[in-house]
Amino acid sequence: MSKNKKYDYDLIIIGSGAGGGVAAHQAKKAGLSVAIIEAGRVGGDCPNTACVPTKALLEAAMVYETAKNGARFGIRGSAISYNYPGVKAWKQLAVERTGANLGEKMYTNEGINLIHGSAHFLDKNTITVGRARFSAKFFLIATGSKTVVPRIDGLDKSKYLTYEDAVDLNRPPKSLVIIGGGAVGCEFAQLFAIFGTKVYLIETGSRLLKKEDREAGEFQKERFESEYSVSVHTSTRVEKVEIFGGKKRLIVKNMKSGSLVRITVDEILIATGKKATLDIGLENAGVKTNANLIVTNGYMQTTTENIFAAGDCVGPYQFTHMAIYQSKIAINNILQPRRRIAAQYKAVPRCIFTNPEIASVGLTEAELKAKQISIKKVIVPINVIGRANTADESDGFVKVIVSSKTEVILSATIASPSAGEMIHEIALAIQNNLKASQVASTIHAFPTWSDTVRVACERVSS
Description:
By secondary structure, the chain is α/β, with parallel strands linked by helices. It is built from 15 helices and 23 strands.
């Protein structure tokens, strides 16, 4: 497709994050004239303030934790300590190696026009960025999301941290309340607890990781409390925040008992989720939204035919790998409207990078039961396999759920070292409608953590 003379560009992409960046390169390679508009940092959240820096910090924390516990393997060392400025420097190196800081140069070298500023639709083919106006035959909206800050009396006055602030601290706080017990809250609880912070984790739901299977949340809570002295408060709501003696005092209420507790800390971290960034004049282009997400069909096409959307602003998951997947589908369907591809979400991996990792794929047990799907399930502890013995790691499990009629695998949850790697075997099985017996009959190397998947599939199919 060559440049359309009627418009400034064949394609304008709003957002240079994971989805927008991949789409820009793919579209340009196919011969489209492309512009990408970015209101914030080039590369978006993932390489700059989210996935990459948090996982780099967590990796440093895990190395520190392993070194401290080396005596059980006969490894001795002088007093183990950490230098947080050095940890932060490592994090920054990891960020730089993503190439996000070279994003503008990379786009320019490819002939992609990078425009800095906030986009706003005038109509379905025209946007403004500041005082400039640009037109395109097609648009891809990949604006991502931003932190949801709960309405809590006194929170604004007391000041708080978001994940963007937390990855850039010069030192861990001595004490910290994290509001939100999802993946982000749990990862930061793990990170700062390892570096010596006294952590309080507040969750309004009845358990941590409420979007995952019950066993995952229960496992995480037990590990936090027993191994890291994290004070976990579920079914609890923050009623008020006030300044007290130079610190921050939170009044929290247990929603089951009604009891009030006062917690005084140095810092507060908000981890209550994210909402789509949609303030770009969608109504002027006829693009509809629902539940604060852009409405798309299976082809990533919005309610306006020439405008597509992908990533956090669409859902149903707010993952980098989801944004990349959806953007590739959108570009394919722009380039090949007669050979369209539809998105499929039945085998989307979900990972929490705590220690051990927790990973899931497929519908949760509760979701399957709500759909009245008859199931069989098995939960196998990881300590049944040889790798657990050689690694001296006994905490964790593999849960596999299959159809009770066909024994086709429907979902799985894994709590184990390398769970994020292990889950892909199950994801592949779900994507291809494999039975548990087929996975069980596949030779698994010994001793590996993945051998637990084989055992679980063997037991659920017997």
